[in-house]
Amino acid sequence: MRRGLFYGWTVVAGAFLGYAISQGLMHSYAVFLVAYLGEFGWGRAETSVAYSVSQLVVGISSPLVGALVDRLGTRVLVAAGAVLLVLGLAANASVSSLWQVIVLYGLVMTLGSNCLGLVVSVPILSRWFVRRRGLAISIVQSANGFGRAASAPVTQLLISSLGWRRSYLALAGFMAVAVVPIVRAFPTREPDAKSAAAADPGRVAAPWHTWTVGAAMRTPHFWLLFAVYLLTGLGSFLVSLHQLAFAVDVGFDPLYAASVLGTGSLLAVVGTIGTGTISDYIGREVSAILAYLVSIVGVVCALLITSPEQHALLWLHACFFGLTWGARGPQITAKAADLFQGPHLGVILGVISIGTGLGAASGAWASGLIFDLSGSYHLAFQLSIASYTVGCFAFWRLRRPARSATMHPREG
Q1: Within a domain: 233
Q2: What is the rounded CA–CA span in Å between residue 358 and residue 364?
Q3: CB 3.0-4.6 Å disulfide test: which of 159, 229, 267, 316 passes with 301?
Q4: Does 64 reside within a domain?
């Protein structure tokens, strides 16, 4: 390994590919939502239930997924997740009622996606990387941007060409082919911290206090991270699920709007890697707050859109909101890895991730309900800004190191 490519980067590549595809498939629901509205005549809040259930399942299942990855390893969880995604996508092609969508998308596909997510990949990445942990995690997190960028226009094109039912079958086939290179990127035997450090001569190893879930939960930092996850999920999903429906309501062509929003999502790659990388130098807190402020500007642009002639505002909204979509993720997960390093990191991250599930589920459903009651998304977007603002203050309070019975050393 010393003479060739550091194997940690192969792990990064596999985690990136799996996360990009799984997130792209999950974000495609925003496009299928519009198709459901047209075929079944469901209300916005009603149709958002499956997405909200999905986000709740993400949070509730994350501790279990984290415990399983600590026990079984990354490769097993990734393979299981890919199989669940294929089965869920294929079965969605035959749905005829809302409860079926809730079970297949909200439960089966969500569990599969969670097994290809950060709760599974961050523990193994944190063992391969210390000094460059922020960079490694941010590269994987940026896959969310790739997934979202491709999701809206590709799914809309598939639906326009094949219909939404055959589109689900096409996506299931794609996932079935992609699973092989994803799984092969992860080692059959995972290294401990000492062997990973020896494999990378540039890696700066650091000792750690062995944190348990109970010890972590007795620190204010655990609950601040939980709150940051909740507020970020709430602020983001008050907007993201209904972006396309909002643009179509204003009068924009669906395929054009999907293309603009997809292009904006692609910028998340730059924003996520950029904020994650600079967090290794200027601190997780400052980097996260910058990301929050850019997202707020994006939401403000959406509030100003009143007609389909305002193309510039739609582009500004898509770009500013898309630039920092997921950009807080590397800061939160890297901060958790900084604070609570050790063999129980997976389950600790899983419990913290309940916050993002609660926030995202509440935001997605509340946004649809607000529209059904008022005929507008304006209040939902204003609440998004408020959530991001409070998130800034919560993240800033994480700047001091956590303490347990034994002082947890800071990274060198």
Answers
A1: yes
A2: 10
A3: 316
A4: yes
User: What are the pLDDT digits (tens) for 177-193?
Assistant: 988 888 888 877 665 55
Q: d(Cα 54, Cα 113) in Å, to the nearest integer?
A: 10
Of the candidate ranges 245-259, 358-372, 388-402, the one whose mean pLDDT is the lowest:
388-402
Cα angle value 330/332/334 (rounded, 5°): 60
CATH number at residue 212: 1.20.1250.20
pLDDT band at 80 (very low <50, low <70, confident <90, very high): very high
CA-CA distance, 185 to 121, in Å (whole number)?
12
**Residue type present at position 362:** S
Question: Is residue 75 in some structural domain?
Answer: yes
Structure tokens at 233: 């999920």
- The residue type of 206 is A
- d(CA 384, CA 239) in angstroms, rounded, equals 7
289, 396 in Cβ contact below 8 A?
yes
Contact between 300 and 193 under an 8 Å Cβ cutoff? The reply is no
Residues contacting 199, CB < 8 A, separation 6+: 1, 2, 6, 7, 8, 128, 191
Q: Does 403 fall in a domain? A: no
Taking the CB of residue 7, how many other CB atoms lie within 10 A of it? 16
pLDDT in tens, 316-331: 999 999 888 777 776 7
Q: How far, in Å, CA of 214 to CA of 216, rounded?
A: 5
